[in-house]
Specification:
175 residues; alpha+beta; Aminopeptidase; two-stranded antiparallel sheet; 8 strands; 29% helix; globular; binds coenzyme A
Length: 175
């Protein structure tokens, strides 16, 4: 079933012909991480390669794209199963020039509808803690439960360029 966003962008299931565009969107996701953490090694030498690996996952429940009538595929969302009743949204990416127009939110709504159709009782997503843009988009789209957090001990010799000052339960973290 295709969902309709504000004209002329439509959300529809991924097709093999979308491969090249989705690989490029995957690379955009990696580039976002590289910029956020100032680390050009994230994702390895071919930042789109992770998409190929992703397509082989056995727990993959569905992939949908946002397609612009004239410009083709401009967004990508996937739903991965986690146990019997839960889902994980991964990846979520909208092409740079198409951000801030509600496409991310529409992709998230579509993934949630598909998750309900599969009788999942919750869906989660794990943005990088520094990805404020994504966290705002996710919160606005209904991801307002902080169900778990991942804590990291940095073992690198010179450490990472972490930023200071994120508090959870009155405990202060770098992020
Ligand atoms: C995160 C991402 C998918 C959001 O897509 P988008 O199409 O720009 O998001 P939307 O236009 O649907 O925005 C939804 C909400 O997010 C908020 N938002 C989006 N961009 C924002 C920004 N730059 N600053 C502040 N708030 C922002 C707004 O509150 C908006 O709600 P509104 O419609 O009430 O104003 C997009 O920025 C992206 O692809 N980023 C790179 C990849 C990435 O980080 N993916 C997330 C991995 S978890």
């Amino acid at each position: 079933m295709a969902a309709q966003l504000a004209e002329p962008v439509t959300i529809r299931p991924y097709r093999p012909l979308d491969h090249r565009a989705c690989r490029e969107l995957w690379a955009e996701l990696i580039r976002t991480k590289r910029e956020l953490y100032q680390d050009p090694t994230i994702g390895g030498p071919d930042p789109g390669a992770g998409f190929e690996e992703y397509l082989t996952r056995l727990d993959l429940a569905g992939i949908w794209v946002a397609e612009h009538r004239d410009d083709g595929v401009v967004g990508l969302v996937g739903l991965v199963l986690s146990g019997l009743r839960a889902g994980v949204v991964e990846p979520l990416v909208v092409a740079q020039d198409w951000r801030d127009r509600g496409i991310g939110r529409a992709l998230l709504q579509h993934a949630a509808t598909e998750a309900r159709r599969r009788e999942l009782t919750q869906v989660s997503i794990s943005p990088d803690s520094r990805n404020v843009e994504a966290i705002r988009c996710l919160h606005a789209a209904g991801y307002d439960v902080l169900s778990s957090i991942t804590l990291t001990m940095d073992l690198a010799p010179r450490g990472h360029s972490w930023q200071e000052g994120l508090e959870v339960h009155d405990v202060r973290f770098s992020y």
